[in-house]
Each structure stands twice: as structure tokens, then as C-alpha cells.
Amino acid sequence: MENHNTDETELIIITGMSGAGKTVAIQSFEDLGFFTIDNLPPALLLTFIKLMRDSGKSMKRVAAVMDLRGGDFFDSLVDAIDNLLKEPKVSVTILFLDADNQTLVSRYKESRRSHPLSPGGLVLGGIKKERDMLMDLQGRAKYMYNTSTMKPRELKERIMTDFATETSNVFTVNVMSFGFKHGMPIDADLVFDVRFLPNPYYIEELNPLSGLDKPVSDYVLQWNETQTLIAKLTDLFEFMIPQYKSEGKAQLVIAFGCTGGQHRSVTLAEYYGKLLAENYKTIVTHRDVKTRKG
Fold first, then answer.
1. Segment 83-111, tens digit of pLDDT
2. Which of 33, 36, 97, 276 has CB atoms 3.0–4.6 Å from 20's, for a disulfide?
3. Are residues 83 and 23 part of one domain?
4. Which amino acids are annotated as binding site, given as ranges?
5. Cβ of 118: how many Cβ atoms within 10 Å?
6. How many domains is the chain partitioned into structurally?
7. 13 has which bridge partners?
8. Smallest Cα–Cα separation from 95: which of 74, 124, 66, 118?
9. How many CB atoms neighbour CB 286 within 10 A?
């Protein structure tokens, strides 16, 4: 895991062989909280970094894919890196992705794409030209990954290990409540319908309150049905969430729904927000708790 100076603008240049995994890499850096840009012309690199450096703390970590798609612009990349190294408070790291020729040829055949250096020609010829062109950059790389036997998930895990910081948003569990009568959340990974639980809506003194209020949460949690549900869901989450995390997922959205999104769903979302926060970065939101009931 890297140690980073918060006063510096950290630039990761992702380059390497076409077909070696640069798309997965840039997505991984985005999940780590980097500002990412794909196929940036080297001539614009210094100007771009100066703009990012002056844009606030949210732009302090930048990852850019720079490869042969830039055409003639790519030839100036080494010069652009040399100029950046002269800049104060800019840290430049090159990540070079490689794979053996057989693997690259196989990946191109699977994708049915032509190599950028041999459009319409033999893929292997383009790969050999590309190796020659990238030799200088490869020698400057601090990190070199050979992805020949890596699955996308394994490449992402390697990047997470090498570039994550204590503040990186590596994996987040978002727990939300909602009301079915206001529509299903479209971004939820797991949805649990808790409308079968006893409803505080029909209790006069609880009706105007929500699951954020102790009398309502106490009411919802007191029932055997609720405790049985909690026991089963806790067991399920203990199994499933680590699987989502190990698969390389950046976030998981767990949604609890009741009729109006005021009482039962809010109570369960609050309960699991606190429980899951013991092991994961957790964010709790209540989509419809402020929506007045008709």
C-alpha cells in the first residue's frame, strides 16, 4: 500500500500493451476515488495536471490511460513525463500492463478487434511493433503487471493492494429504505420486502413518527417475526457480502422496502446500517422518510 503526500497531485499513468487490461485498470482506479481520464494526448498532460492541481482536494489523485490510440501524440509522452517531473508537488507513477504474445493474440481474436498498429493485418505483427515502441516507457515503469494469467478481478485486487490508501473508497455498503408506493429503487442490488411485519402506521401515537424515532424502532423490533428475519438476513449477509467484495465490486446497495418508506423499512435500514458498519464502510439513506403519507 502506497504512502501519499496529501500536498501533492498524484498522477498514475496507465500504459502498456493493447489488450493487457487497461480498461479494467482505469475502472479500478475510479473505484479507488481517482479522477480518471482515458486516452489523454500527451501534449495536454502538463496543462491537464495543472488544472487538476488547482481544482481542490478532490482532484489530488489522477489516473490517465495513455496508449497508442493517441497516434503521433504518443511519441511525445516521454517528453511530457520528463516535463512533469520538473513540476513541484506532482508525483508521477507509471503502471505498465503486459501479457505474453499468445495471450494478447487470443484476446484480440475473442474480441474480434484489429490491432491499432496492424488494422486489417496480422495481430502478431502489430503486437511486435507495439513492444518496440513501448520499450522506453516499460523501463521507466514503477509497477509492471503481467496479466497473462490474471482474471479481471485479480487485476483489480492487485491495483487495490498497491494503490489504496486508508481513505480510499474501496468497498462501500449502501443501506437504504424506501416505500413501494413511491416506486422501486433502480440501483439496488438486493431488495427486501418487509411489508409482512406489524405496521406502526396503524398505531395512533406512532403514525406521525418514523423508524428514526425510538418508539417506532422498538415497536418494529419487538416482534418474533422481526427477530427471525434479522437472524436469517444476518446469516445471509455474513455469507454474501464478502463474496461481492472478493469479486471486485466497489459498492453494494441493500434496500429495505415497506409500504410508505416511513416505519418498518427505516427501522431495518438503521439496524443493519449500524451492524454492517462494524466491518464495512457503510452509508445509510432513507429515500422516502420525508415523503408525507397520503
1. 888 877 788 899 999 988 888 888 877 76
2. 97
3. yes
4. 16-23, 67-70
5. 17
6. 2
7. 64, 94
8. 66
9. 23
